[in-house]
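Session log. Operator J.P. requested a structure for one protein chain; no other inputs attached. Running the standard single-chain path with token output.
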Amino acid sequence: MAEADARGAMPSPAESLVSIAGVNLVYGLRGGAPVQALRDIDLAVAEGSFVSLIGPSGCGKSTLLRVIGDLLAPTAGTVGIAGRVPREARLKREIGFVFQEAALLEWRRIRDNIALPLELRGTPRAERLAKADALIRLVGLDGFQDAWPRQLSGGMRQRAAIARALSTDPRILLLDEPFGALDQITRDRLNMELARIHEITGVTVILVTHSIREAVLLSDRIVVMTPRPGRISRILDVDLPRPRSLGSRDDGRFDELVRIGNHELEKGYRDA
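Structure written below.
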């Protein structure tokens, strides 16, 4: 069975795009006791892979994602991206970030929202708009390039946010529950769009999700985290064939992996 525990997971740090060793993070609360959000996190993420982080609310999934993306600094331990500190990768625009809220600028049309990172970089207007138009086609927003954000549905806004995150050709795409507020039909559709984008671009994806079924459908590996302080309790290798489709959920192995993931989550609650 294609499974690995947290310490024996492949790839090795030397082979990884993202390498995390001994990471701890403690929040100092004003007027209260410190809160440990992450404890002893070791993780290696291979370039071009799709990794999902799952676990109960408050377990530190989003915190870990922000540490990788240089939005938070760990209290202890190290994070490397292609052998460099995350700050260097972020400043070189090698990290794309998509949150649950699309956070589009309401006073800019969709094409200009997508092109914004390139504009901030100083890319000539014709070049950045051509790149934005290519990304609009990639995420399936043809015909909406001149729309205002308020004219788009929630799912379309998230497509635009993903396109914006891809505009600088990042090596890593960090997704923090980007589809959590969407209805199931839209979520399924965007899951398949994300799988297609990953296949086409080869970008490394790290996704935070509460849905074990979503994680199994999309991922190469699933990192299961415990209740706070967040630790890695298990890493599951997803050995379903690619390319994936919604029909992949009819595979008996899909149900088996979902059961394993749910069991691990329940075990984490019991052991907390």
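Operator note: Residues 1-9 have pLDDT under 50 and may be disordered.
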